[in-house]
Recover the amino acids of this structure.
């Protein structure tokens, strides 16, 4: 049977962790269990009740050493997941990527305005505010992508 445990970098068990602030790294270790030799049961009987008239008695078996069946050696895989916190630079890169995705989604959601203008069914003046917002979004995307390349 395979067991999985989540621990911090010092090996302390973690009950909960924030996946936005770190990631899990899987480590598997093989624990070797040696073979067990068979052990014969050792027991004796004690009288529980005696019947003097007939010389009979009731006895109870008492086990002094329980018997154990032999077991071959075996290996047990133990999987541990180590929680690794993101560095400040990794967190900043994740935030940049998340923000860029949001901005590109906003651009995509307003593409219809540019298409309407291109097809002549609307004018740039009608959508001046949207066009200006799209410029700002593109400028922010360019700035964030440039920051990411500097790191």
């Amino acid at each position: 049977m395979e067991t999985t445990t989540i621990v911090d970098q010092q090996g302390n068990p973690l009950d909960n962790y924030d996946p936005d602030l770190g990631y899990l790294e899987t480590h598997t270790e093989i624990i070797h269990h040696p073979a067990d030799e068979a052990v014969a049961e050792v027991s004796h009987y004690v009288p529980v009740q005696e019947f003097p008239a007939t010389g009979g008695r009731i006895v109870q078996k008492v086990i002094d050493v329980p018997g154990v069946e032999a077991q071959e050696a075996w290996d047990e895989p133990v999987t541990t997941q180590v929680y690794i916190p993101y560095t400040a630079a990794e967190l900043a890169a994740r935030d940049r990527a998340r923000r860029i995705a949001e901005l590109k989604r906003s651009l995509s959601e307003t593409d219809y305005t540019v298409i309407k203008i291109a097809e002549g069914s609307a004018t740039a003046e009608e959508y001046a505010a949207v066009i200006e917002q799209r410029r700002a979004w593109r400028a922010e995307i360019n700035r964030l992508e440039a920051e990411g390349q500097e790191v």
